[in-house]
Amino acid sequence: SSSGSNEKRRRPLAVALAVSYFLREASREYRAFWTAPTADEVLVDARGATDLATPILDALDWAPELLILVSDGFDNDPPGVAAQVLELAQKNLRAAPLCVHLNPVFDAESFAPKALGVGAVTMGIRAAEDLPTAVALASFAEARASLSDLVAHLDERTERFLAADRKMHEASP
What is the pLDDT of residues 50-108, one digit of tens each? Predict the structure, then answer.
């Protein structure tokens, strides 16, 4: 789960921390709501069952346009409540945020990232640099962005990737 596998210890936590740092730099306004409140997010540690609903409610109280959740998808303290909160927020808030659940853990049973529920679009994530594309795909999936918006975003990401590859080959002897 979020402590990682024997081969990749703490990787999910490292991805969550990287996403937090990325969002802090890329956002006009940013607030992090960790399941274990701490003065320094670098000190967050993986532990057993976690209450996801409380930090989600705290974040919704702030009325964000975009709510990004990084979780292994196990909504277990109490079971299912975070999924219910997300679903109710999408149905009942006048200006419901785009809720994107980023899951850095592969679920071997479903061959996909484990979803939190219908109130958030779940995307697998391996690196924080994939965050803009994950949000673009989620926006399209929730009909908050058009196909042309998505294609433009993917074209721009592709061009950046190809430009970096060309630059790397030009620098090689």
Answer: 888 999 999 999 999 999 999 888 888 888 899 999 999 988 888 889 899 999 887 77
Q: Please identify which residue in the block is written with the tokens 């540690």.
A: 45
Long-range contacts of 52-60 (CB under 8 A, 24+ apart): 52/77, 52/81, 52/82, 52/116, 53/78, 53/81, 53/82, 53/84, 53/85, 56/82, 56/85, 56/86, 56/89, 57/85, 58/33, 59/31, 59/33, 60/85, 60/89, 60/93, 60/97
Output the pTM of the full model. Answer: 0.80
